[in-house]
């Protein structure tokens, strides 16, 4: 039986463990998660192992990134099975604090952002990136890892975290890994568990519509026409589209010259009660 990771519930306990590793001259990697771990998370852990001697996986459903109308209460919490999965990969530590540890009584400090945090997700979830940046900064400061791993599925989030780490001069390298997908193209997400069997079949439309729109753009077609066709395909399949856009892949700014800029297509759409996001390079 593989050894189970040590579970740390407080910042002080985590820092004590990291300090001991540091005294041994070991490199530390971190994989921040909200739990409900799937194979995409496992790939992040494996990638962290290639870059570090000791791995911390954080499991914390962060209340500050959920609006009152969102799914904080329903978000899947599966700590026991998550820890068992991490044991199989030899993870040394899990940081699983409660909300009072991360946001104690009287807590009054948050992180606010501009740049890549403006638009897209914040047009629909204005609270979101302040909550993400605040909790990620706290996690990084709690463990001060050498590297931290994030998936590209949450592409805007990845750009926001990189900007924050640069701006605050945090001593952690942020690594983004390609989106892990099901065989039919659907990006892995803990929220996929919300989909009914019929919705799960329909959900593949989001990646297919994006690929088709990207092919039109790569072939020299009109960007707006390609995006309009993609939005129409999603609407016809039963999605309610928040956005399907093409942006600068490095800044997320609107494209000034699509022919020469690095490009990323990003989408967010509702299928029933489930909001799906995805993105691809173009």
Automatic annotation (TrEMBL):
Active site, renumbered: 41 (proton donor)
Record-listed (R)-pantoate binding positions: 65, 157
EC identifiers of the protein: 6.3.2.1
Pathway: Cofactor biosynthesis; (R)-pantothenate biosynthesis; (R)-pantothenate from (R)-pantoate and beta-alanine: step 1/1
Binding of beta-alanine, residues: 65
Pfam family, one: Pantoate_ligase
Cell compartment(s), UniProt: Cytoplasm
Residue positions binding ATP: 34-41, 151-154, 180, 188-191
Keywords noted in UniProt: ATP-binding, Cytoplasm, Ligase, Nucleotide-binding, Pantothenate biosynthesis
A single MF term (Gene Ontology): pantoate-beta-alanine ligase activity
Signal peptide limits: none
Principal location listed in the UniProt entry: cytoplasm
Record-linked InterPro entries: Cyt_trans-like (IPR004821), Pantoate_ligase (IPR003721), Pantoate_ligase_C (IPR042176), Rossmann-like_a/b/a_fold (IPR014729)
Catalytic activity as recorded in UniProt: (R)-pantoate + beta-alanine + ATP = (R)-pantothenate + AMP + diphosphate + H(+)
SUPFAM superfamilies assigned: Nucleotidylyl transferase
Enzyme class: ligase
Note: The reaction proceeds by a bi uni uni bi ping pong mechanism.
Subunit structure: Homodimer.
Similarity comment: Belongs to the pantothenate synthetase family.
Protein name per the record: Pantothenate synthetase
Organism for this UniProt entry: Kaistia terrae
